[in-house]
Structure formats: structure tokens, C-alpha cells
User: Which sequence fits this backbone?
């Protein structure tokens, strides 16, 4: 079992099949059973980036179990609708739930991801700040990246297309796709009403390429994995509309159904070169179960 420790948490890589509570009891032999259960109850344990409180949660070889110390757990308790997947001196990677704005809000009291993380880092030092690197729509869930300094933010944004190696989304679209996989290439332009339009020829817009693969589906809906070769505003939403299969819940781009009561779009994986260490890092957020249930 590989163990990585920092001041806030320890991470363990699982090497055998075992349930979560028995694993923790083995890990903390000097703690009582009730004390170990309390660690779970307080939300200090996450598996592969998702907080888990169930005692019988199954662990398999390769899973990563993160355990926060009490102080770090209390600090993270101020966060609502976002979960920290990774934090170091330069970046914070989060899992944002649908319904949470990334940054700007008309209501100055709304707890956007940006405002919550700003409050979070100020718990350690009032001078600390965070900087937004990219955005997700309010009703899109998944992995987001923030910087802890303007220097790191600029390093990431200025070299975004070179630094980012993988951007994978999970998408639920209307209808049954005839092709199991394919690619969409077009040029995107934005109107004054902020709607983005797709053109099959170079009209001076931004070049956009999306690769997609069918994961599951039925007669009404299809579950796709979309890999962005370029990252343009509303790219997947526009390309799915152009394909004739709009993202469910996306009235802006011609969807007629909203079975999930949210946008059927989830940022599953972000892989990039760390701006300071130069190493390739990869973070994932679990796909909402409702996506799979819809295409059964």
C-alpha cells in the first residue's frame, strides 16, 4: 500500500479488495471502532475524490483513499456544492456540482465556487486569494481548476492548449445516435445574445473539434463520452445541436426534454502539465448516477 502524507491529509493506494470500514480499522489499530466510525461520519474520508460515509463501501486494487485530519475537515465544511479533489501550494482542483455558479453572480451574496474557495484559502491567511482558470456553466458539474496566485493563473491560461492534455466530458443527449463514434469540426461564432453558432466552413469564427464515443443508450437518450481537442465556449452543447442530438435540458440549444432537471453535461476528467513541477497530473469526478439510469 503506497502512502502519501501532507499536513492536511494522507492518501493510500489500495492493493487488495476490502470494504472501507475494515480497511480503516486496519489502518488505525490504536483507535476504537467508534472513533474510526466517527472519521467516516464527519466526512473526512474520500475514495477517488468522492466523499464516502458508508461503512461497507467496497474498495478495489488501485483505488485511492484520502483521509483528512480534523482541522482540514472543519475547514472544508464551509464548502457547499463543491468538493476539493486536490490542493497544493499552486492550484486547487474541485468537483463542482450542478447548480453552482463558477464565478460571477447577480446576487452578491450567492455562494459561487470562486467565493467559497476564496473564503476557504483565507482561513489560513487573510491575504490569500484564488484565481479562476476556466469556467463551467452553472448546470454543468465536474472538474474545475483554480490557481492560488496570479503568476500560476497566467502560466496556465497563456499555455492552456499546450498544458491541457485531456478534457473528457460525459454527455446525455436526446435521441438515439446512429454512429457509435465520430468527430465534429466547425467554426464557432457568438451572437450579441450570447448564443454560439456553428459553421462547417471557416467564417472567421473559432475553430472547434469534438470527438465523441457512445457509452450507452436507449430509444430516447444516448450517453456519450466527449473528448475536446479544442476548448471553446459552449462547444459540446453547440456541436451536439449541430449533430441533431442536443444535450438534455439544454433549451438554449434546442433540447425539448429535461429529464435530469439539469444540463446533461459533466466534466469527467482534466489532465494537464502541472505549471510548477512539469509533471502530468490527472483528476476525475464521478459521473452522476442519474446519467446512467436515464439510458438504461
Assistant:
Amino acid at each position: 500500500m503506497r502512502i502519501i502524507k501532507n499536513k492536511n491529509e494522507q492518501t493510500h493506494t489500495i492493493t487488495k479488495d476490502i470494504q472501507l470500514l475494515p480497511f480503516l480499522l486496519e489502518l488505525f489499530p490504536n483507535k476504537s471502532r467508534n472513533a474510526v466510525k466517527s472519521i467516516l461520519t464527519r466526512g473526512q474520508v474520500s475514495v477517488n475524490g468522492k466523499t464516502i460515509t458508508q461503512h461497507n463501501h467496497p474498495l478495489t486494487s488501485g483505488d485511492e483513499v484520502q483521509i483528512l485530519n480534523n482541522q482540514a475537515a472543519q475547514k472544508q465544511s464551509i464548502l457547499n456544492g463543491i468538493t476539493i479533489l486536490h490542493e497544493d501550494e499552486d492550484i486547487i482542483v474541485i468537483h463542482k456540482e450542478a447548480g453552482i455558479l463558477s464565478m460571477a453572480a447577480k446576487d452578491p451574496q450567492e455562494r459561487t465556487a470562486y467565493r467559497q474557495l476564496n473564503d476557504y484559502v483565507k482561513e489560513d491567511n487573510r491575504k490569500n486569494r484564488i484565481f479562476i482558470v476556466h469556467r463551467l456553466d452553472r448546470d454543468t458539474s465536474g472538474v474545475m481548476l483554480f490557481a492560488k496566485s496570479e503568476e500560476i493563473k497566467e502560466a496556465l491560461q497563456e499555455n492552456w492548449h499546450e498544458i491541457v492534455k485531456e478534457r473528457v466530458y460525459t454527455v446525455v443527449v436526446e435521441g438515439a445516435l446512429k454512429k457509435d463514434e465520430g468527430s465534429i469540426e466547425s467554426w464557432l461564432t457568438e451572437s450579441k445574445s450570447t448564443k454560439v453558432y456553428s459553421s462547417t466552413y471557416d467564417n472567421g469564427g473559432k475553430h472547434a473539434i469534438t470527438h465523441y464515443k457512445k457509452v450507452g443508450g436507449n430509444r430516447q437518450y444516448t450517453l456519450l463520452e466527449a473528448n475536446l481537442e479544442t476548448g471553446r465556449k459552449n462547444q459540446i452543447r453547440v456541436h451536439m445541436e449541430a449533430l441533431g442530438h442536443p444535450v438534455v435540458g439544454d433549451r438554449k440549444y434546442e433540447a425539448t426534454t429535461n429529464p435530469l432537471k439539469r444540463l446533461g453535461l459533466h466534466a469527467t476528467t482534466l489532465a494537464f502539465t502541472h505549471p510548477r513541477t512539469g509533471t502530468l497530473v490527472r483528476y476525475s469526478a464521478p459521473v452522476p448516477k442519474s446519467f446512467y439510469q436515464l439510458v438504461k
